[in-house]
Amino acid sequence: MPATPDDLLEGLAAGREEAFAALYDAYGARLFAAACGMLGSREEAEDVVQDVFVGLVQTRARLRQVENLKAYLFAALRHAAMHQMGRAKPSQSDTAEIAMPAADAGPDAEISRRLEVDLRRLPREQREVIALHIDGGLTFAEVAAVLDVSPNTAASRYRYAMEKLREAMKESQRGTV
Amino acid sequence: MEPSDLPPELKSLEQRLAARSRPQPPAGLRPRVLAAVRHELAAQPARTRWGRSGSWQYAAAAAAGILLVLNLLMSMGNRNDFPASRAANGADIQQAAARICELVPFITPEDAKREALVLRAGSHLELVPQPRRGVSGLRALRQIEEGASWVTQ
Lengths: 177, 153
Hints:
The complex is a heterodimer of chains A (177) and B (153).
Chain A: H1 5-13, H2 17-39, H3 42-58, H4 69-87, H5 90-94, H6 109-121, H7 124-135, H8 140-147, H9 151-176
Helix pairs in contact in A: 1-2, 2-3, 2-4, 2-7, 3-4, 4-8, 6-9, 7-9, 8-9
Chain B: H1 8-19, H2 29-78, H3 83-89, H4 91-103, H5 109-123, H6 137-145
């Protein structure tokens, strides 16, 4: 495994397979979780993560100039997810199975399920800012870099998304009571 | 804004979101992704080689085109032996000019050469029938048939 991020970038740029394996081990799970949050489908998230890695191979010569690999990766993920959303038929995304972990069970399972459903109902811009920050573990500065907006815009978009989610959850609770 | 800036209600929602179990990638995704990476890595050098050879072919074709154009331009540039210049440098023109100089003492050599050229041009004129002024087309033809005089210009 490469010792430093620079070694990792150098290995990726040189096309060394072990560097791509190390990159997957470092970011694969977070990329997958964020992709699930953006797309709401495990199958599409798998395709998108694979697309990101194939895209990295194709553009590896440019990787030496990348300053923040994490932000670069998630920007590539967002791009691939948007491409995937464009490819998917509207009916597919509407009826897509919610990306719930199979092992999720217990008293909080219903709340978690409702949370996922309400997340899916958010507009795409708000869904992706939550996916990047919560599921991807990106800071607001990194989210801003991914979305190509200012950190203040990223933070306010996140806050607005959280308010919308809270409202949606309140409505869901009213509906079930 | 930092997450700590959120009001308590949103902060608890954020904590709930962060604490929920996130979807984990299936075990098969890693080998699948790495196989795709391996495949792409294997395919790309071939593409690069093809791209390089393609660019070499393009450069060779462009160089051949440039050489062809240069060759044509050079041959056009070298072909300056026009009939007029050949005639102007011909021995008969020189002789005619010398003869004119003998006959017309005050004429300059340049004018003599020009006159010689005019004489030579005149000697190459073809005889062209020209109807007299005011004669209609049919009558002109009839005059030619009847052996009317030929006029040269």
